[in-house]
Sequence to fold (763 residues):
Amino acid sequence: MNKQRLTAIALLIVLIASFSVLLSIGSQIYREKPPIPTAFTDVQGQPLFTQNDIERGQLVWRSMGGHQLGSIWGHGSYVAPDWTADWLHREAQAWLDITAKAQYGRSFNELDSIKQAGLEQSLRDDLRRNTLTTSANGEIRISLSDTRIQAIGQVSDHYLSLFGDDPELSTLREQYAMKEGTVPDLERRQQLNAFLFWGAWAAITEREGQEYTYTNNWPFDPQLGNTPTSDNIVWSILSIVTLIAGIGALVWHHASGKHEELPKPAEQDPLFLKKPTASQKAVGKYFVTAVGLFLLQILLGGVTAHYAVEGQNFYGIPLAEILPYSVTRTWHTQLAVFWIATAWLGTGLYIAPALSGYEPKFQRLGVNVLWVALVVVVLGSMAGEWIGVQQYFDLDTNFLFGHQGYEYIDLGRVWQVLLLAGLLIWLTLVTAAMRPALKIQGEMRPVIWVLYASCVAIGLFYGAGLFMGKHTNLAIAEYWRWWVVHLWVEGFFETFATSVIALMLVRLGLIRARSANGAVLFATVIFLTGGLIGTLHHLYFTGTPTGVIAWGAIFSALEVVPLALIGFEAIESYRMRNASPWMIRYKWAIMFFVATAFWNLVGAGVLGFLINPPISLYFIQGLNTTATHGHAAFMGVYGMLGVGLMLFCLRGLTGQIQWSDKLLKGAFWSLNIGLAAMVFMSLLPVGLTQFFAVIENGYWFARSPEVIHSPLVETLVWMRVPGDVIFGAGGLFLGAFLFDIIRKAIGAKGTQAIADAPLSANA
Fold:
């Protein structure tokens, strides 16, 4: 108990210290964010873009899909360009040509290397110089040279045509997977230009008194003087040293620890003898919904991937007019969160009464009301996003009901608030059911409290997304967005899952309660030590100060440390499948836990660290290397875990109904083989191809049609089809399995008892 108490104190210290650092860094980002000036002006003081233009332009960008159509500062989707890098490259080429013709009467490419080098130095002097001035009344003005204003005019004209329906750029729009007339209104396109220029200005303008830009010299473009900073290189090396030291310390601890033998399982399944409560039966519809959303996500993923080849068509069908890339990708990424969260929330509602043996009054009603609310939010937000991208909303209504433009937090503000309300209802229901268990002075009390604390965090931390307002500076918006994506999804859901699995295995008599307590507390401390502050590795180049690089590099390396020993967890889980004859009931649930451990090592660990060090991410942020890690970690870890938890709960709900081993076997192997195929046959090779392109020609080139639609990359995109088909088959196997047990449940209960069947529509 003393050791557990010390571990609990260590956990409390980690939480306090980590959030203190996160909040301190956040306050620094607020102070040192790239400024939005009152106006960008010419040397005479005439405004080119005003603050209102930039802020309204940000709303236009959000309404057309935001991160789901290209990226800004490296965050977003991968088929269209990174608008920051693209703008800077186009502006630089225009500036060089304008100056070359003015000084030498020839285009820049016609000059000899000495003259070109001289003009490139003049280009860097002009674009990197910070001309920000603040007046006595607080107005911020930034003056631009006449040459630069001419270059900006050329880029603006290009974007006005690109985001409209100019037939001369129809081929380029198709290559970018943009629908015709992406932003039909001319005034909106002009405002969009203001916002895109501001993002590019922050990426090329040096901070006052420094020799690096607001985005720490990102994107890589040697012609513009954007090369890695010393912080970028030094902290990357130190992060690798930290990783090696951390793994060494953890191996030492593991080797020196006392390893108890597993207990002898009971003669009969301890869970099989207990009948599910009314609220637990009602949870069945959550798992049906989760599988339905999963199948829809798979379908949309196939369409979205195909747009990388045919930007406006799906095998010749002009689908983009109805479902453009920005919509299908929005739904694909959002449904990933929705279906996994639905499975996990259903698990929480099922496990809470199981832990306490207590069924609160009106618990079933609450479970049913929450399910209805979930369906309303899912369907309502998806409809709003489609209407927003089609530009049917005005900009203010789009913010409330349409598309917010931030990846994984795309749903409009009203839907976002409703989802938070739903999570708070879930927390209330879990609290009501778990309350007796929290008061019991039993062996599992520490793990139960860790589980409950993670439930509280899940209920509350989604609210971090509400700190982003309608006109919030993008640097601050990214800070709060990653609080949701990293802390909510990658942090507290992970703690929740670890606790739930431990409690399930203890209840089955497969591990000792004392061992589970120590393992869960220690794992939580180790994970959160790196995981909380490690959030900052997403923010290296989003308009943040250099301190973010130091904190993010070291602690994101510590995130990977516990994953180095994840193989032990996989082997121990695998051995449990044969611990007792009745364990055959849980075989596939445990196999999905094994898959979770595997993908934790490969997807979150190996492929995650590929993009974690600052020097690595500097070159490959926003390339398909990011998608490689995203697919392997999100589906491999959280998706597989969601399926495993769902199967565990369904085992209790279905009683003596015979499961189809063939369907579950097909689902397990198809999902895992398909995921591996799409990752290693397509996504990773494309990402590495782009990596070479960045090093050789600059970041803008790796995101250009010359690379994205090169014969090699298009072939690699087509190589994704086998993996997608196999993975899709796995989803169908899972759906068929669920349909099979529903059919058997209805048959077993008879027509009169359909209303009480655990997985019926009336459950």
